[in-house]
Write a structure and sequence with these properties.
heterodimer, A: mainly alpha, ABC transporter involved in vitamin B12 uptake, BtuC, 72% helix, 0% strand, B: alpha/beta, Rossmann fold, four-stranded antiparallel beta sheet, 10 helices, 25% strand
């Protein structure tokens, strides 16, 4: 199918264009620009979570920690060591990748809930190191005056709009990477692991190795998001690495939709907006957000994008199923008109084994045959 | 030519010998069957060959190469595929996507190929599509390719599992009760599918409970009981072997009635 006619791609592009145009409306309001830009930094980290949780199905609770490593890497190198932003940024991201890879070596010997607990411990250790290692990280006094990216005389990143577009550009790379991974055999590899590790193993997928790479990739995205966050905000404290950050990211991805291309972006933006809306309530805002999350998990476990995508998938599949069966249905006139509409219902009867006689012997099973 | 050579294979779980002193040659171009009562060690044998379990004794070699301690990834890459006793498909995916998953082991393109959409990635994607479609057609389920795996009849699922295994381009296919859960009248069709595999260059090692099907299909039968070899031979020899009748045919005949 022509990708330009795919509602998922149209929707994703529409969200991106809308986001890209926000400076037109808010260019004069520095606060709004900063909130949106910080939200996009978080979205980048959420795209990392999307790879390990959404695609691979492993609940990684260390993402806040990797975000913190990226943030502190940039923060400390540009202030205490007076590096340029870009050098600090690249080194921080590479550092996050290395730490992520090493953690992954151990983490991926664990499975399911043990993986979640182990990664949560990693996240907590990172937080403790940052909040207690006074001589290096300044502990609770945090890091002040993180440098702005150097524009080389061309761009002045002190302007919130320029900063917005820098983060926006990197975010776009993340969105595209997610899209490219999802439709490639790499994405297929990760999805098989999410569905069934044993079956993935059986068809020759290198389960451990793939999980390891997914985990490292997720850490890298976390580091990128954190590094940008440090320069956008200018001041960072240990909160940047806290476990709350991890759960914030989780909320973003749950609302937006795990394993989808647009989900992390949409979720981050919507929840950031809600956070702002309920800001006066401080900690109590979770009283409002909690039930929303519960309702989402019950009614739309795949998030907003997953929920909408479900309609698209069903429609596409119905059409394709009809096309695939078209040749047979011409011969078998009873099934032609109704096979699409009642497809799911009929097939479920058959799969239950109650009417399994209609499978191969009668050619294409039509609804009439099996009812 | 001997495709798979199993010598004195053993697997101990604690104090229990799940498989003990089993030797078997699987000849190229043949269908070899393993039968035996429940708990006789048939599935354990499969898991050992496939690399899920590590043997505690003996050796396995495939096309002259020692694969005793190979991981499943290396075994599958080397040319051995398998299906499971309980139908095992990715339920939320279409049949085509399922069979495409079988192509992963033959894919060489990585994340960078995917991101930059390199010629290698494009070429591989189209090869994968073709091979997956071919496997679906071979197994007679191409018309269901866009249906979800959880929405198609049991028999179509079983055939898809075979197609997924074939997509990995195996030379030896391990089928664990391929016809389990399929109504009796359709096992003939299914048997024909299995029989056509050797012509495709795929040798078969299968576990099956449906005796009529086995007797008509297999060139050689290995009978296991309590993890050990009870008999080995052509179907006719097995049918008339008194030990086999006592250990297997007799008892399951009662169970099934």
């Amino acid at each position: 199918m022509n990708p330009m006619k795919n509602p998922r791609i149209i929707g994703t592009i529409a969200v991106i264009i809308l986001l890209g145009l926000t400076p037109l409306a808010f260019a004069q309001e520095n606060y709004a620009m900063r909130v949106i830009t910080v939200g996009m930094c978080a979205a980048i980290a959420v795209y990392g979570l999307n790879i390990i949780l959404g695609f691979t199905g492993q609940l990684n609770l260390a993402q806040g920690g990797f975000f913190g490593i990226g943030a502190y890497g940039v923060g400390l190198l540009t202030t205490d060591y007076d590096w340029s932003f870009w050098a600090a940024f690249v080194v921080s991201v590479i550092g996050t990748a290395v730490i992520g890879y090493l953690c992954g070596l151990i983490a991926l010997r664990t499975k399911d809930e043990y993986f979640a607990i182990f990664t949560m411990a990693i996240g907590f250790i990172i937080f403790l190191v940052i909040s207690r290692w006074e001589p290096v990280t300044h502990a609770h006094s945090g890091v002040n005056n993180v440098k702005f990216p150097e524009g080389g005389g061309l761009i002045d990143f002190e302007s919130p709009v320029a900063m917005f577009y820098l983060v926006f550009a990197i975010l776009l790379i993340c969105v595209y990477t997610t899209y490219a991974i999802r439709r490639s055999s790499v994405g297929r590899t990760l999805l098989t692991i999410r569905t069934s590790e044993d079956l993935a193993d059986a068809i020759g997928v290198r389960v451990g190795f793939s999980k390891q790479l997914a985990f490292a990739a997720s850490a890298v995205f976390g580091g990128v998001g954190g590094g940008l966050y440090a320069t956008v905000v200018g001041f960072i404290g240990p909160d940047a690495a806290s476990i709350d950050k991890t759960f914030e990211f989780l909320m973003f991805i749950l609302v937006g939709g795990m394993g989808t291309v647009a989900g992390p972006l949409l979720g981050s933006m919507i929840v950031t907006f809600l956070f702002e809306l309920f800001q006066d309530f401080q900690a109590y805002r979770f009283i409002v957000l909690g039930p929303i999350i519960v309702a989402l998990v019950i009614f739309a476990p795949r998030g907003i994008v997953g929920y909408l995508g479900g309609f698209v998938d069903r429609r596409n599949r119905r059409r394709r199923v009809e096309e695939a069966r078209g040749a047979d249905d011409d011969l078998d006139s009873t099934g032609a008109s109704t096979s699409g509409g009642t497809g799911d219902h009929r097939a479920r009867n058959v799969a239950d084994g109650t009417e399994s006689g209609a499978g191969r012997t009668g050619g294409t099973p039509s609804p009439e045959e099996t009812k | 030519m001997t495709m798979l050579e199993i010598r004195d294979l053993g697997k101990r779980f604690g104090g229990l010998d799940a498989v003990k002193d089993v030797s078997l040659d699987v000849e190229a171009g043949q269908i070899t069957a393993v039968i035996g009562p429940n708990g006789a060690g048939k599935s354990t044998l499969f898991n050992l060959v496939h690399g899920f379990y590590r043997p505690t004794a003996g050796t396995i070699s495939f096309k002259g190469e020692d694969i005793t301690h190979s991981s499943p990834h290396r075994t599958v890459a080397g040319g051995i595929a398998r299906t499971f006793q309980t139908t095992n498909l990715f339920d939320d995916s279409t049949l085509l996507e399922n069979v495409l998953a079988g192509r992963i082991v033959r894919s060489k393109s990585n994340v960078f190929d995917a991101v930059f959409h390199t010629p290698r990635h494009r070429r591989e994607s189209s090869i994968n599509e073709d091979k997956a479609m071919e496997a679906l057609e071979f197994c007679g389920v191409a018309e269901y390719r866009h249906d979800l795996a959880s929405n198609v009849p049991q028999e179509v699922q079983k055939r898809t599992a075979v197609a997924m295994a074939l997509a990995t381009e195996p030379e030896l296919l391990l089928l664990d009760e391929p016809a389990g859960g399929i109504p009796e009248e359709e096992t003939v069709d299914f048997g024909n599918l299995i029989r056509s595999l050797p012509q495709r260059g795929v040798s078969v090692l299968l576990v099956e409970h449906k005796m009529t099907m086995i007797m008509g299909l297999a060139d050689t039968i290995l009978v296991l009981d309590h993890g050990q070899k009870l008999a080995l031979g052509a179907p006719a020899e097995i049918q008339s072997n008194p030990d086999v009748i006592r250990a297997y045919l007799g008892s399951t005949a009662q169970e099934e009635n």
